[in-house]
Write a structure and sequence with these properties.
With about 230 residues, the protein is mainly α. Helix content is about 75%, strand content about 0%. The chain has one domain: Growth Hormone, Chain: A (Up-down Bundle), CATH 1.20.1250.
């Protein structure tokens, strides 16, 4: 209901500039449009891969919070009468609040300096730090600190990465489609996150191993942003 309330004014009131008629729909051209050559557009490919790795860290970190609180923190024993789900709500609130200032500040600094890559890199490293906290500590306080760091890192990343991606789109005529391809990196990470995390959690390494791998994904994604050459 909230989605409908928020989107209806845009759909009803927004006016788009006149556009040329679209060519006839072709299923073959539609399917071919999902491929953007990494050789011809390497910066677009690096941005796609960087985003997938960093959002993979988020998918693994957020997706297993409930189980981490139950199995490692023993939340219900620490707070009798409370449920693990209530603990997750607290951490999600900390994550959200922790993202507000870093999101606004990173976007403002990036616009002022004209530099995108440093903010994306810093956001990825901050997310890696959040995951590393949970590899070494299993207290409620460490979970709160990790949630705040994860929110701050993801806020910095998502604010500037989206701006950076709009500067890397291969063709003006295909902006909507190419942004859709970039968004597929989010879907891929949300799909792969549980597939990768589940065997790690149930292995001898447990949660420390899973969060360590998540931190490695964030570092890799942050580092790949330096392979992008057409933006600063």
């Amino acid at each position: 209901a909230l989605v409908l309330v928020l989107i209806l004014p845009f759909g009803l009131l927004a006016r788009e500039p006149h556009a040329e008629p679209c060519p006839p729909f072709s299923l073959r051209d539609f399917a071919r449009g999902f491929w953007v050559s990494p050789r011809r557009h390497p910066d677009f490919a690096w941005a796609w891969l960087s985003r997938m790795l960093i959002t993979l860290t988020l998918a693994m970190g957020i997706g297993y919070l409930q189980y981490f609180l139950r199995d490692a923190v023993h939340y219900e024993s620490l707070f009798p009468g409370s449920t693990v789900e209530q603990g997750v709500v607290v951490l999600v609130a900390v994550f959200t609040l922790g993202s507000v200032v870093p999101t606004l500040l990173a976007g403002w600094l990036s616009d002022r300096s004209g530099r995108r890559r440093p903010a994306v890199f810093a956001g990825g490293l901050t997310m890696a730090l959040a995951a590393l906290v949970l590899t070494t500590a299993t207290s409620w306080g460490s979970a709160i600190a990790a949630a705040a760091l994860l929110g701050a890192g993801y806020g910095m990343f998502v604010a500037v990465d989206q701006a950076m991606v709009t500067q890397l789109l291969p063709a003006d005529a295909d902006r909507g489609k190419d942004l859709g391809i970039i968004s597929l990196s989010n879907s891929a990470s949300n799909t792969l996150g549980p597939v990768i995390a589940a065997p790690l959690v149930t292995s001898a390494g447990g949660y420390p191993l899973m969060y360590g791998v998540a931190a490695a994904f964030a570092v890799a994604g942050a580092t790949l942003v330096w392979r992008i050459r057409s933006v600063r």
